[in-house]
Specification:
Nuclear Transport Factor 2, Chain: A; 3 helices
Length: 125
């Protein structure tokens, strides 16, 4: 099984490939079917919630020139290493403009693979 830092790097590489191909299947392969995400920014009173079944194709089709990168700030094991909390800063570059966000990802071991179970993304702009 891969180290969690490598899994996170591969997850963000999958996003970059999907921005080009508009195919979300590789992104989905990292997600648990129990996945739930929360996305917010200062203009929202409450985060927007989405889950494993949200329309990633529509998300990808919104962006013609986009990439994502992620800088890990901390990795904390829990449940005897069966889960990890990964915190850091994601930067989406969309048509040359940077959109930084603070993030927390919860990864869980499922059938000997790391799956994303939850994410919290707070856009800094």
């Amino acid at each position: 099984m891969m180290f969690i830092k490598d899994v996170v790097e591969e997850y963000f590489s999958a996003w970059d490939r999907a921005f080009i191909t508009k195919d979300p299947s590789e992104i989905k392969s990292f997600m648990s079917e129990k996945f739930v995400g929360y996305w917010a920014h200062s203009g929202l009173d409450r985060p927007q919630e989405y889950d494993y079944h949200y329309d990633l194709v529509s998300v990808l089709n919104q962006y013609q020139d986009a990439t994502k990168n992620f800088k890990v700030e901390s990795i904390s094991p829990r449940k005897n290493g069966q889960e990890y909390i990964v915190m850091g800063c994601e930067t989406a570059v969309i048509s040359g403009a940077e959109y930084p966000a603070k993030c927390m990802f919860i990864w869980r071991e499922e059938n000997h693979e790391w799956k994303l179970i939850r994410e919290y993304i707070e856009l800094e702009r």
